[in-house]
Amino acid sequence: MRREILIILSFLIGLPSFAEPQYPQVKSNAFIEAIAQRGAECRLLTRWQALSLRAMALEDRKRFTPQQRSGIDAAIRNQLASMTCKSDSLTVWVDAAREGFETEMLAPYLIVYQSLAKMPDPPQTFSAVSLRTDYAPVLEMIDTKLKEFETSGRVAEGGKPWPNYIERTKDAALGFVSSLENDGGDQAAAWIAQSALIVESWYEEETSE
After folding, report:
1. DSSP 84
2. Per-domain residue ranges of the chain
3. How far is it, in rounded angstroms, from Cα 110 to Cα 121?
4. How far apart are CA 26 and CA 67, in angstroms?
5. CB of 79 within 8 A of CB of 33?
6. Whole-angstrom Cα distance, residue 126 to residue 55?
7. CB neighbours of 160 closer than 8 A, spacing ≥ 6?
8. Contact predicate 125/180, CB 8 Å
9. 138-188, pLDDT tens digit by residue?
């Protein structure tokens, strides 16, 4: 999905909304944030899709220099000012990215959520965001969705077979838990919280249809 996003951005970079002289990283990050906000407002993106884009944008922003960080808010405002529900910069991006949203953006969050929810004592960061005592309904839906991915014909992120990808992501999830009290614990807690928030949003949307 990240590769697809860069390809789409390279096309959209010539559109009027990209005319401001900014750092390229700030410009593209502001664009993704604007897509998330306006896409949700225009009902072109579901809440979990918008949240996953915002999580990705926030993660990328951690690598910004102080100068880049100082310009991001203005860049987002500029993008939103020129982006309507019918803007090509929004509709073209959403249409091009839609196919890979579930398998590349949702899948890792589903696997992390599944791994943590099955623990005898899930991390407090996870429980505080999910606010759930019975994880069985969500886990059942996650199992169904992961099986759907495996039979979809689409490869997992990085071109890996689904069983391999699922196991590696489970191992990473358990690694997050073990690192909560160590250096980098804030980042692990953030990923755990994001997984709970995004999957709960996905589950709510799926069951309310």
Report:
1. -
2. 2-99, 100-208
3. 18
4. 10
5. yes
6. 16
7. 168
8. yes
9. 999 999 999 999 998 888 888 889 999 999 999 989 888 888 877 667 888
Residue that is written with structure tokens 């990328």 in the block: 60
Q: Is 97 exposed, middle or buried (0-12, 13-18, 19+ CB in 10 A)?
A: buried
Give the residue from 107, 113, 103, 102 showing the smallest Cα distance to 194.
113
* Residues 103 and 151 sit within 8 Å (Cβ to Cβ): no
Distance CA 165, CA 155 (A): 9
Burial label, 6 (beta-carbon count in 10 A; 0-12, 13-18, 19+):
exposed
Q: What share of the chain is helix, strand, coil (3-state, %, to 5)?
A: 75, 0, 25
Task: Report CA-CA distances (Å) from 135 to 102, 117, 203.
Answer: 21, 6, 11
For 29, phi then psi, to 5°, come to -65, -40
What the block records as the tokens of 209 is: 């249809």
CA distances from 140 to 10, 42, 51, 206 (A): 39, 31, 22, 13
Instruction: Measure the CA–CA gap between 93 and 44, rounded to whole angstroms.
Output: 10
The whole model's pTM is what?
0.85
User: Residue 184 is which amino acid?
Assistant: G
C-alpha distances (whole Å) from 108 to each of 10, 157, 198 are 26, 9, 11
> Does residue 31 contact residue 18 with C-beta atoms inside 8 Å?
yes
